């Protein structure tokens, strides 16, 4: 049996020490705004509609986005800590070296996004829409992704670790080489072709057998 191929190490956000960041509250963003080297905390951004926003080398801590849309946003070297991004529209976003730590992102829209060197850690991301996205060197770990939608997305150096994936959508998505074995689910929405080459546990094999109408004989 060949050894499991080790995934390339992700590049982490290159953010200056907090003492070098400009601390602020933020309650509004406008199209084409650019933020750099900021520490944004304890803020509510409400009913914000802005496109082509750029944020670099910044930490957002305990920031809530409510009824907002930021399509085409570009995030480079950014960390989100305990933020609420539920139902936020980030369609068409470009993310590079971004971390989401312990964030709430129910229904987050990342459709058509380009995502590189990004970690989602301990996030509540049920119903997240990550359709038609391009993900390279991306990890989801210890997240809840129930009924999330990754349909038609492209994965390279993509990892799922210890997530809850109940009824997540992976239709028309190539899962070859992706290890699902330590993730928890009682069913996925996926086609047989997408599963080809995917790594699963023995227990999960029974789930997929049931999904495709197979009978497993002990």
TrEMBL record:
InterPro entries: 5peptide_repeat (IPR001646), PA_immunity-related (IPR052949)
UniProt xrefs under SUPFAM superfamilies: Pentapeptide repeat-like
Domain of life of the source: Bacteria
Pfam families named among the record's database cross-references: Pentapeptide_4
Name assigned to this protein: Pentapeptide repeat-containing protein
């Amino acid at each position: 049996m060949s050894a499991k191929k080790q995934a390339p190490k992700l590049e982490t956000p290159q953010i200056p020490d907090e003492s070098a960041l400009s601390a602020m509250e933020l309650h509004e963003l406008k199209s084409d705004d650019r933020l750099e080297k900021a520490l944004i905390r304890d803020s509510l951004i409400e009913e914000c509609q802005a496109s082509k926003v750029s944020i670099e080398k910044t930490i957002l801590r305990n920031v809530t986005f409510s009824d907002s849309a930021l399509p085409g946003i570009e995030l480079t070297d950014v960390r989100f800590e305990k933020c609420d991004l539920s139902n936020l529209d980030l369609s068409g976003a470009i993310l590079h070296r971004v971390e989401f730590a312990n964030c709430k992102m129910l229904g987050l829209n990342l459709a058509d996004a380009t995502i590189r060197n990004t970690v989602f850690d301990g996030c509540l991301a049920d119903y997240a829409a990550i359709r038609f996205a391009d993900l390279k060197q991306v990890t989801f770990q210890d997240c809840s992704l129930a009924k999330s939608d990754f349909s038609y997305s492209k994965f390279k150096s993509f990892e799922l670790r210890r997530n809850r994936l109940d009824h997540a959508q992976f239709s028309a998505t190539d899962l070859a080489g992706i290890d699902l074995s330590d993730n928890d689910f009682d069913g996925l929405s996926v086609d047989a072709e997408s599963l080809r080459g995917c790594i699963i546990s023995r227990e999960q094999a029974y789930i997929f057998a049931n999904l495709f109408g197979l009978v497993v004989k002990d």
